[in-house]
Amino acid sequence: MATDKEIVGSVKEQLAKLFEESLRAAFPDIEDVHPMIAICNDSRHGDYQCNNAMSLWNKIKGQGTQFRGPQPVGKAIIDNLPASEMIERCSTAGPGFINVVLKKQWIAKSIERMLIDGIETWAPKLPVKRTVVDFSSPNIAKEMHVGHLRSTIIGDTLARMLEFSNVEVLRRNHVGDWGTQFGMLIEYLFDKIPNWEAASAQAIGDLQAFYKASKQRFDNDPDFKERAQKAVVSLQGGEEKYRKAWTQICEVSREEFQRVYQRLGVHLEEKGESFYNPYIPKALDLLNNKGLIQESEGARVIFIEGKKIPLIVVKRDGGFNYASTDLTALWYRLNEEKADWMIYVTDVGQREHFEMVFAAAKLAGWLPQNENDFPKASHVGFGLVLGDDGKRFRTRSTEVVKLVDLLDEAKSRCKLALEERGKATEWTAEELEQTAEAVGYGAVKYADLKNNRLTNYTFNFDQMLSDKGNTAVYLLYAHARICSIIRKSGRDIEELKKVGGIVLAHPDERALGLHLLQFAEIVEEACINLLPNLLCEYLYKLSEDFTKFYTNCQVVGSAEETRRLLLCEATAVVMRKCFYLLGITPVYKI
């Protein structure tokens, strides 16, 4: 986090401050006018736009105003702009759009400052202090499969972007570690491994097989089923033997999960269903005291306007369910963890469930009615991972694909490709291994994150491991090439930062400089809209802008070498921060 250096805010934010002054000066009688600043879609017109003129004209026309249309309103806004080092010129177009061209000297100075003070000074400023990101959340005693990939990757990236924006993030793994399935698992453990307390975790073996075998027994053996149902009561009643068995099963699962998290470089703090269980009665009492809980067909429910079925919070048998746990977790996060924003990353199939949970929280007064007010809760839905046949991604034997196997295959394919290019003889075994990991795991992550999360995407190793087009491989190699250019120059880049300066004389230098400067607002937009693909689009465009610059502007050996090396370094710095936010490890040589 940037503490000793000033966070400058995005270009959009800095322009908004200037236009706010202008709007107040030009239209002092109109309240609540907020500057509407956007990046220009067509760079021929300008770099940014201020789009307030039309809406202002609609407010003042017919009220004896001196203005005769949105264009004069736009001109008045320009005329009242305070003097600034930022703006080269402004002009109006169409129905009062104000096009803004930034001074290239100001762009250059902003990049120079970032190189000295660090990219943390380009962090966006968000209106939130503490956020809970609830993601990954696999079920105990079940393998993590490809379905968990999206929640884990998307959640981690959202957490990283918020952390970069100086928000305190509570990364929560809401694992399924409580419920009726534990009765059959515990009883099966007692039967299969009589000395289970002394046995090691390896005695359970493959958890997936263990789960399937216990489920088969549960479905086909009435005596076992009855014992399993009693075991649930014993576990929930806190009997020590059952608690110990439950803990052992959970521990085996955690070790499996950790193998995946370690490969993905993902850090989470577990607060599973069992954590919230003791708080459920209190949360339901609070809802009941508000008159929200009603009896319906033997269950206790909350009726939500516009929904055909109610939200069941206590089942007919008196047991709790997902809704009771999720409402309790929401209450806990608001009242105990003091979160301003709670973000839930699950597949789109759970959207309606969370809509109902959030609606119930609003009825209880836990959340404000207005969607834009804080504290707030957001559901981050995502689509399916498909195979080449357009169906859910599975193995040939119709099993779901284990996540560990998937990641290991990506790494081994990358390693093979590097060996085919002769890297095994050029690099140390460690370098080969690290590069294969960085590129393989990065490719899997980027192939997911570059899509709008709401869409389904096809998992295809050949496409994601291609070094052409919008892939992690292409982008990682582009970064390595920039590092190679700097190395080949033989110059000390740290020294150049102190003594050199950036000049954006060539149009491709200016285009690259402007795109670098837009990093902060892209991260901000990706955070606010909870869309990591916006950062991927930015990163790919950055690599394209750099290629254009490098093709048309000689760097090493030119008269402009110093300033262009600094532009290379700035591009590499921003690329590395993009990679970090996406959870991808950069590579420095290829």
From TrEMBL:
One of its GO terms (molecular function) is arginine-tRNA ligase activity. It catalyses: tRNA(Arg) + L-arginine + ATP = L-arginyl-tRNA(Arg) + AMP + diphosphate. Transmembrane segments: none annotated. CDD domains: Anticodon_Ia_Arg, ArgRS_core. InterPro entries: aa-tRNA-synth_I_CS, Arg-tRNA-ligase, Arg-tRNA-synth_N, Arg-tRNA-synth_N_sf, ArgRS_core, DALR_anticod-bd, Rossmann-like_a/b/a_fold, tRNAsynth_Ia_anticodon-bd. Pfam families: Arg_tRNA_synt_N, DALR_1, tRNA-synt_1d. Residues 13-102 form the Arginyl tRNA synthetase N-terminal domain. Keywords: Acetylation, Aminoacyl-tRNA synthetase, ATP-binding, Ligase, Nucleotide-binding, Protein biosynthesis. Gene3D superfamilies: Arginyl tRNA synthetase N-terminal domain (3.30.1360.70), HUPs (3.40.50.620), Isoleucyl-tRNA Synthetase, Domain 1 (1.10.730.10). One of its GO terms (cellular component) is cytoplasm. GO terms for biological process: arginyl-tRNA aminoacylation; post-embryonic development; reproductive structure development. Its EC number is 6.1.1.19. Residues 475-590 form the DALR anticodon binding domain. PROSITE patterns: AA_TRNA_LIGASE_I. Forms part of a macromolecular complex that catalyzes the attachment of specific amino acids to cognate tRNAs during protein synthesis. Belongs to the class-I aminoacyl-tRNA synthetase family. NCBIfam families: argS. This is arginine--tRNA ligase. It comes from Nicotiana tabacum. The lineage of its organism: Eukaryota, Viridiplantae, Streptophyta, Embryophyta, Tracheophyta.
